[in-house]
């Protein structure tokens, strides 16, 4: 029996996916800034601060989506379990 996906589960998946894509993009941006700046990126520059803040926000997005995904998966497993 196939159960439909819940709205919360889909929203958590999209949130986690967007967070992962944004995090990867910020890591690429940080690498580009590091390699193109003579002497490397200054730790106190505005670009370093914004990239770091963005990385923390995307990590928070991942943490927010995780409990919803775990709860949805556990509920689906308990319904389909033959134990």
Q: Which helices and strands appear, and what pairs or packs with what?
A:
Elements (H helix, E strand, L loop, with lengths): L6 H30 L9 H35 L3
Structural write-up:
Helix content is 78%, strand content 0%. By secondary structure, it is mostly helical. It has one domain. The longest helix is centred in the C-terminal third of the chain and has 35 residues, at 46-80. It is rod-shaped. The relative contact order is 0.18.
Integer tally of domains: 1
How much helix is in the residues?
A: over 70%
What is the overall shape? rod-shaped
Number of helices: 2
Biggest beta-sheet profile: none
Give me the secondary-structure category: mainly alpha
Mean of the pLDDT scores?
Answer: 83
Strand count: 0
Low-confidence stretches are none
Instruction: Report the end-to-end length measured between terminal Cα atoms.
Output: 16 Å
The multimeric state of the shown protein is single chain
Fraction in beta strands: under 5%
Radius of gyration of CA atoms, rounded to a whole number: 19 Å
Helix-strand topology string: HH
Summarize, please.
This protein is mainly alpha-helical and 83 residues long. It is 78% helix and 0% strand.
List keywords for this structure.
mainly alpha; single chain
């Amino acid at each position: 029996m196939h159960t439909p996906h819940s709205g919360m589960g889909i929203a958590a998946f999209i949130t986690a996916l967007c967070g992962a894509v944004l995090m990867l993009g910020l890591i690429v941006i940080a690498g580009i800034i590091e390699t193109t700046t003579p002497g490397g990126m200054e730790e106190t520059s505005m670009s370093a601060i914004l990239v770091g803040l963005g990385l923390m926000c995307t990590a928070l997005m991942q943490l927010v989506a995780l409990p919803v995904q775990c709860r949805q998966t556990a509920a689906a497993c308990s319904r389909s379990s033959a134990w």
